Please model this.
Amino acid sequence: MAQVAIHNFDDSVLHRLRQPARRNHRSLEDELCQILTTAALPSRPELTAKAEALAQALEGRWIGDGTPLIREDRNR
Model:
């Protein structure tokens, strides 16, 4: 697998990139690989539009624990 070195990288940007890496339980290197891989994927505007519409529709809703519903369905 290839390696890339980035020189003269702003420390504040690096600090901001460490935060999502921690949230996603990844190393900084793995987080950067994910970001670059996603950025290199072909654009799918139709999927982006659907995802944005869904996010708007669900905005402000609380999605609770579905365990009781699953148990109820299994007991039928």
About this structure: The chain has a mean pLDDT of 90. The radius of gyration is 19 Å.
